[in-house]
Amino acid sequence: MIFTDLEVTRELGKLGNVCATIDAGAAAENVALAATDLHLGACFTKSYSETGVKEILNIPDGYRTEVMLQLGYPRKDQPRSMRPREGADATYHNRFGGS
């Protein structure tokens, strides 16, 4: 679980929440990369009961959960991934729709 100290966020003013979100995403990605190096799988989750998670993990008031990571060994018989949606591999240079 990656969480934010809301007092630090308040000290940063309006930019605090944005910075917290960006920092949490960067931290989660670093954990996922380290997990991959250890041959572990990683999954990000944001859809959960924050109140329930804070209670289970004893996270005190004054902190906000940002993202949960699940780590584990991937199944050997992992089913095929879903087909990517049309256009999912599109990238643009300098402007939307540009090649």
Task: Describe the structure in your own words.
The protein has 99 residues and is α+β, with helices and mostly antiparallel strands. The chain has one domain. It contains three helices and three strands, in the order βααβαβ. It has helices at 6-11, 15-37, 50-57; strands at residues 2-5, 41-45, 63-72. It is extended, with a radius of gyration of 18 Å.
Shape by Cα distribution: extended
- Give the terminus-to-terminus CA distance: 39 Å
Radius of gyration: 18 Å
- Percent helix, as a range, is 25-40%
Q: Spans of 5+ residues with little confidence (pLDDT < 50)?
A: none
Structure annotation, total helices: 3
Describe the biggest sheet? Answer: 3 strands, antiparallel
SSE topology:
Blueprint: E1 2-5, H1 6-11, H2 15-37, E2 41-45, H3 50-57, E3 63-72
Antiparallel strand pairs: 1-3, 2-3
Labels describing this entry:
99 residues, alpha+beta, 3-stranded antiparallel β-sheet, 3 helices
Briefly characterize the structure:
Helix content is 37%, strand content 19%. It is of the alpha+beta class and 99 residues long.
